[in-house]
Design a protein that fits this description.
The protein is α+β, with helices and mostly antiparallel strands and about 450 residues long. It has 13 helices and eleven strands.
Length: about 450
């Protein structure tokens, strides 16, 4: 190629870094094509390696997050178990937790099958709009309280509670009028007592502490189903009936209450009853033994220990699941970390580094690599005032040639000593020498171009 014409104005306008590659013959072009193909292959290989490494790093981060969340959940449940008086020594691993769960289940089953007081009445019909019999709707823990309240409500214990009057009439017809029924939609609710109101003496003598431990009878009941309807029924049937320790305490309490207001019916733990009109004594106001109630007695609820064991078992099962997830997350994380450290993965890291080194070398041979900051600064130094060796000295405006400006290889103090060794980092590149060896010419169309000299 004798002449090489470049659009110089276009290069200066777009500030494009032009790389000129000249191949003397077909052999040189073939070598350059082979290097380019090898460069593309290396880039694909390096990209595949980097994608694999990034995937592994992402997996490690996700597994570490899973381990952290599992550990936090485990510690939270462990704190709850500590509040339930479960020793931490039995929570070290899944095997010990499994043994503890088995022991707690055995204790729970023993309490569940332990003999306790039950209502002996026949159950209500299992039909829609039927709530149940009054004797089955409530439970009382204390036997003495269960005896006196069951005796006090003996006339109502067998009554079937329904939601609608229509259902009550249907049951009445089926039993030919022998079954008591009480529909909820026929209850006048305006005068029902407030379930949470204070005792009668609190209103008039708030600082008085009466003997006999007075409580509302309804507060001794425990409902296991349809609590709202049960409160409605027992609030109507029991009203504000009170319970005190003995008959003497009941009479003393009544004497104090009637000074200010009406006194409701009072029952005692011993089985006595003072009616709201003040009448007491006789066989009609003394509760019979529980055996003579013929099963018409409120049942006994499961003990608190049973419910505590159920809560512990549920918490232990949650802790066991959280502990298992924590251990599995730790094992998965350790497996991935070990995989990254095995010889096969180390060899892949080494292969990637070797491929990157080969890519740098090939790009250097092709001249298409991105120059580093130091190389770019040394290739086009801004503070170097001397011209390139291939450039001719400029002529001053006076017409006399000016002496070449001393380059930075000349001593700074201006002495004519031995020149310093040339710095290879600021030696003009092959491309710079090639451009410097061209001259600017003006073509016929008026455009400036470069011509090789």
């Amino acid at each position: 190629m004798n002449d090489l014409v470049l659009p110089f104005d276009s290069c200066m306008k777009h500030k494009t870094f032009c790389v000129l590659m000249m191949c003397a013959d077909a052999k040189k072009q073939s070598q350059m094509a082979a290097l380019s193909k090898e460069r593309e292959n290396l880039q694909s290989t390096i990209q595949a390696y980097r994608t694999m490494f990034q995937t592994q790093r992402t997996l490690v981060e996700e597994l570490r997050t899973s381990v952290h969340e599992a550990a936090r959940e485990e510690q939270s449940i462990r704190a709850e178990l500590r509040k339930q008086n479960i020793p931490g020594a039995q929570l070290q691993d899944t095997d010990s937790v499994e043994k503890l769960i088995t022991a707690r289940m055995k204790e729970r089953d023993q309490l569940l099958h332990k003999p306790r007081r039950l209502c002996g009445l026949a159950p209500a019909p299992d039909e829609p709009d039927v709530i149940g019999k009054i004797g089955h709707l409530a439970m009382i823990e204390n036997t003495d309280i269960a005896r006196v309240i069951s005796w006090h409500m003996s006339a109502d214990m067998d009554c079937v509670i329904t939601l609608t009057t229509k259902k009550a009439q249907e049951i009445y017809s089926k039993t030919q009028g022998r079954q008591q029924v009480l529909p909820l939609d026929s209850i006048y609710r305006k005068n029902l007592p407030d379930w949470g109101k204070p005792l009668p003496h609190v209103r008039y003598r708030p600082n008085w502490k009466p003997p006999g431990r007075p409580v509302y009878a309804r507060d001794m009941l425990q409902f296991h189903t349809d609590q709202e309807s049960c409160r409605l029924v027992f609030g109507m049937l029991l009203g504000d009936t009170l319970i005190l320790d003995s008959l003497d305490h009941a009479n003393a309490y009544r004497q104090e209450i009637i000074k200010h207001s009406h006194c409701p019916t009072i029952l005692t733990w011993q089985g006595d009853r003072i009616r709201s009109n003040g009448k007491f004594g006789g066989t009609m106001n003394k509760a019979v033994p529980i055996e003579k109630l013929r099963g018409a007695v409120f049942g006994e609820p499961l003990p608190m220990a049973y419910h505590a064991l159920c809560t512990q078992i549920a918490s232990l099962e949650q802790y066991q699941a959280a502990l298992t997830r924590h251990v599995q997350a730790q094992d998965e994380l350790q497996e991935v970390i070990n995989t990254q450290k095995n010889p096969e993965m180390s060899a892949k890291y080494k292969e990637c580094q070797e491929a990157e080194a080969q890519l740098v070398e090939i790009e250097r041979q092709l001249g298409v690599g991105v120059p580093s900051k130091s190389r770019a600064a040394s290739s086009t130094p801004k503070d170097v005032t001397g011209p390139s060796p291939a450039k001719r000295s400029r002529v001053s405006t006076g017409g006399s040639p000016t002496s070449p400006i001393v380059s930075h290889r000349t001593p700074l103090n201006g002495s004519i000593g031995d020149a310093a060794e040339p710095d290879p980092s600021i030696t003009p590149t092959r491309t710079s020498l090639r451009i410097a060896s061209m001259t600017t010419v003006v073509s016929d169309d008026g455009r400036k171009r470069l011509r090789k000299t």
